[in-house]
Amino acid sequence: MEEQKVSDLVKELVLRLLSSNQPDAEHSTSLVDPPKALKYAMRILSSRMAPSISVDEAAMAESIKRHLVNEGKSSDALTFADLYTKFSSKSGPACIKNKWAVLYLLKVISEDRRKEKKSDSRVSSGFFASTVSGGLPVLFDDDSNNCRVSRNQKTLDKGWNGGVLLVSKDPENIRDIAFREFGNLLKEEIEVSEGVLVRDVLYACQGIDGKHVKFDKNVDGYVLPDFIKVPRATGIMVRKLCELGWLFRKVKGYISESMDRFPAEDVGTVGQAFCAALQDELSEYYKLLAVLEAQSMNPIPLVSETASSGNYLSLRRLSVWFAEPMVKMRLMAVLVDSCKVLRGGAMAGAIHVHAQHGDPLVHEFMRRLLRRVCSPLFEMVRSWVLEGELDDIFAEFFVLGQPVKAESLWREGYRLHTAMLPSFISQSLAQRILRTGKSINFLRVCCEDQGWADAATEAADAVGTTTRRGGLGYGETDALESLVVEAAKRIDKRLMDVMFKRYKFKEHCLAIKRYLLLGQGDFVQYLMDIVRPELSEPANTISSFKLAGLLESAIRSSNAQYDDPDILDRLRVKMMPHGTGDRGWDVFSLEYDARVPLNTVFTESVMARYLIIFNFLWKLRRVEHALIGAWKMMKPNSITSHFFTKLEGAVKLQLVTTLRRCQVLWDEMNHFLTNLQYYIMFEVLEVSWSNFLDEMEVAKDLDDLLAAQEKYLHSIVEKSLLGERSQTLCKTLFALFDLILRFRSHADRLYEGIHELRARTTESSMPSRDRIKSRLKSNDEPSGFGSWVGGGRKALTQRAGEFLRIMGQDLNTIANEYSSLLEGFIAQLPVQQHVDLKFLLFRLDFTEFYSRLHPSV
């Protein structure tokens, strides 16, 4: 019903247009036949010819109105505006829906007549007259060799503005013939047909030179020679389509080059997987080209032909077909440029960067590509985390291994290669992956334990993955992290159990504290008593075997004998390198033999720091032992006071002054040493040990254990003034120790002299016979300050006074030097970095004696 109404309206329009232009009756035979004109109009309206302008009704009406105004027809413009307002306001079932098309038709018919007037005779007389001017093609008449379509000049003179195409009486389909003639004319102007160019473009997209389109190395691209005449638009389109061939050559060249040098290390398994993934994409590309090759064999129909088959290939159709492959090939070319000098994890990371794209096509393409590329990398991660195997012959993994000794396996055997760490694996996850594999190798190599295999299987079961190959892939980072976390938790727990239960790590730490840090008091005291005679000798005369025997005696004579025999067997005597003039005290030390796997924690550097601490504590105990020995010598001499009355007044006063000076100096030194030893033993060693035990209990892996051990040692070294920042203070402290030992030797000389003075004074009051016997008996005894014999009692008194004067001067010298050193030591304590050293200052100057004595301090 609707189609019939449209046909009636078109028929009425054609008849009105023809009737308004009827000439006189004598010319009626040469006019257009209305049925033929109607048939031609219907064919035009039912064709697919469409204007290349946007559908905008208001813009079209405005264009017509503006055109009328420009021609000076303002009244017509107003009339048109009024008519258009009424026309556009009509709505309903019986009204025209496509109003824009009606306006456009009227505008084109008007312009067709106007442009025909301006065209030259050559154009107006031929087929192209109306076509070139923008109108509709006309028909030809059989009776004339020139223009077969005539327009009534009389009606033009009368001012008729409509314009219409008059249809020929020729019963043939002249419109198709006209389009063929137009096509032939174009073929004469174009030297190369579009079909040939299409086939050349397809060849170029396979990296092959075509008949006309060839690769130019100078331009680095496919070009169409200048002598081949094609329209400019066609040449541009050919060059754009040939970009796909240039990209194909780049990708194909990279694959060929990589495969040619594959055995070399700079390709690797990840590079091989990348090439395989690219080759798979090129295989899909080849399939598309095969389909297009088949379609290119079909001829390209003319515009007017309806074509028996739509499977032909033109340049424009080819550009549509190449839209998606062009995006993929460009992306592959970019990846090839990015990965030329990369391999392994670095290559996977570079490709991953390009996967962060908002286009779903690109995102899915990159995801598919990365799953292939990252397959070897994820297999390395799985093998390392669950089996401890570093299957990386091309050094592509972000974990590097190197052959080392068993004790260095944990610290130096494996490390992260950050250059090979892909960006989709975080630094923390990489560290955990590294530690998990290290733990497996440590258990297998150092601990000779196989329980880690069950822990790895449990971890894989817990996260729902498999221990076989191919269980992980790109895009499953969460699953990878879950697997690593579970495996690390179980394997680290296994490692901690082996270290604490099987190898008794805690017990060995306690043994080192008791013997190397001198925490076993009775053992240390007995050892110092029995080795003192030996260590007082020159270092080059001391036998280490004899000292080892004395060590065994000290163990058997103290509570150390009840310790584990394995621990006692590891305790040994060590003689440090010595020079000329060194005494046994300077080179004696103890060492603890930490075997595999304990030597992973107690390394040579760690034991060297323990040795430094031992030497410091050993000297502190030696100084304390020396002061105790001086006290033992000083106390029994109080019985000598009964013979003071027999001495002369000056000598008696000198003796009392010297003894009192010695006693006061000993008290000062003992006060300093007692508080220093309390600080070292309790504030430093015990507090640090307590903190070490707490951290040992919460340690989850071997790295935590190593960190706790490092913190423990660092705390002792820094608080004991042995750190780098306390070197000046440490030198002052050791100078004080040497001064106290010097005081001990002077005190020994003083009291030996007093003993001999007493003996000689007693001898002078004995009968002559007993005096001779006493002299004979005392000849074998050493004299503290030379012979007192000779010159009688007066000479004895003079020599005693001289000896006491010299000893008094020496003690004053020691006292002044000690006060100076102690003042400097106390002055440096407040400026130390460690806060605990302020507690030492508080203990040493509790009564503010030194603060009042030396206000500058």
From TrEMBL:
Primary location class: cytoplasm
Gene Ontology CC terms, in alphabetical order: gamma-tubulin complex; microtubule; spindle pole
GO molecular function list: gamma-tubulin binding; microtubule minus-end binding
Keyword Cytoplasm attached: yes
Keyword annotations: Cytoplasm, Cytoskeleton, Microtubule
Gene Ontology biological process terms from the UniProt entry: cytoplasmic microtubule organization; meiotic cell cycle; microtubule nucleation; mitotic cell cycle; spindle assembly
The UniProt record lists the keyword Cytoplasm: yes
PANTHER family reported for this sequence: GAMMA TUBULIN COMPLEX PROTEIN (PTHR19302), GAMMA-TUBULIN COMPLEX COMPONENT 3 (PTHR19302:SF14)
Protein name: Gamma-tubulin complex component
